[in-house]
Design a protein that fits this description.
Elements lengths: L10 H6 L13 E5 L7 H8 L5 E7 L4 E6 L2 H13 L2 E3 L2 E7 L9 H4 L2 H20 L5 E7 L7 H8 L7 E7 L2 E7 L3 H11 L3 E3 L2 E8 L14 E3 L10 H8 L8 H7 L32 H6 L13 E5 L8 H8 L5 E6 L7 E5 L2 H11 L3 E2 L2 E2 L1 E4 L18 E3 L25 E5 L7 H10 L4 E6 L7 E5 L2 H11 L11 E4 L5
Antiparallel strand pairs: 1-3, 1-5, 2-3, 4-5, 6-8, 6-10, 7-8, 7-11, 9-10, 12-14, 12-17, 13-14, 13-18, 15-16, 19-21, 19-22, 20-21
Helix pairs in contact: 2-5, 11-14
Length: 510
Amino acid sequence: MSPAPNHADNNNDAKKVKLDTKNPGAPSRVIHIRNIPNEVTEAEIVHLGIPFGKVTNVLVLKGKNQAFLEMSDEVAATTMVNYFTNCTAQLRGRAVYVQFSNHKELKTDQNHSNNPSAQAALQAAQALVNQTDTQGGPNTVLRVIVEHMIYPVTLDVLYQIFSRVGKVLKIVTFTKNNTFQALIQYPDVVTAQAAKMTLDGQNIYNACCTLRIEYSKLSNLNVKYNNDKSRDYTNPNLPTGDPALDSALAIGGAPGALASPFAAMHGLSSPLTAAYGASPAGGMPFTGMPLAGVTPTAAALGAAGIRLPGQPSPNCVLLVSNLNEEMVTPDALFTLFGVYGDVLRVKILFNKKDNALVQMSEPHQTQLAISHLDKMKTWGKQIRVTLSKHQTVQLPKEGQPDAGLTKDYTNSPLHRFKKPGSKNYQNIYPPSATLHLSNIPPTVDEEQIKDAFTHAGASVKAFKFFPKDRKMALIQLGSVEEAIAALIKMHNFQLSDSSHLRVSFSKSTI
């Protein structure tokens, strides 16, 4: 049963093995899997068997869209077949059929034994099983920690990733110790174990957003609201927790901000759900061992600014409400929201000047702005930041009076993220009382900078130049609200004839 060298269809194997196309009755430790995708790997076949016991051998016959999986004993094989009798197995989005093989063992010759991909898959599988044994028993609830989160990860991105392994019942997301985390509940231990083994250590995007997964001590999640922080997919009628939205939904409304989350809830598929392995141009596939049918979703790739043929352009326009009418200007919003992405246009609504539309250049920047600025106290009022139903901010027609409420910043020299993969993405932090200052000329001293901030209305509590780079400094103000106002006033402040100050929020304190 050895594959012919350099032969994609493995036709020699197909000739040697009588394929089990009929329903065999007798249990066997060899599993026969039919209807597998052409591009499937040995690792993905092995992952199907890992939750049920030790996998001792694997053979993929790509030319026949079939595979064989040998388990360590008949008990493990019987558990696997019984499980997939009641639950459809999937590989790369395609339903596959799992049954007992007529073969009692996989007899492979020397060539197959030396198949690097098969051996690597089996060794990796054993390593995962050993790791699980040392970490304690599985549960139906997984605790997921997202490390090195350069791009935002939403509840819907997690749902589309984890539902590729099996049916997701509930998700609760939260931030703890400045780290984005989630609790994800599956219907049974087998699916939860498969998800942990398949996804633990994988990156959602290249070299970032790494999933760290462990078993939760909880056995059931109590979800009260269906919104962007929590979701119970078994009960789509839960309130959102926002009285205005709940009343709109009760009378049949469909607020635009809920369209995406509820599309996922009702099973609306993404254009990329079957694209894993296709490697679309510019895509960011998961790295490491190929995942069993898991794909970066349209929502996930959209969050990284990827555009694919046929993919609808995600919304880049934010609605900012409860603004201080006396203080707000397009330039102020451009500067504040520019911390989290490149702002293309700003429009303060003529008839409701405490509301504004802010158009970002990429959809993941809108998510960053929402997560960091929503409910922040700015100019004495707690602002709200949500996705707008508008796809773009319209400029006033030529000659039409606008009173300076709409402004185009497309060609502004102050954009922070114009370069793809800009290092500025790695220095994005929520508003804090400490500001990071850069581009300070050598002729300007501490007192001059402190005086400039005091003149702008801030109370300076502490100041410190960077020891190894005097062009940068930290300045600590009286409150987060003060720091937001100071950043708006002082970013691009002219310190000398040729130098303008650069200001951002700092993760450090003095």
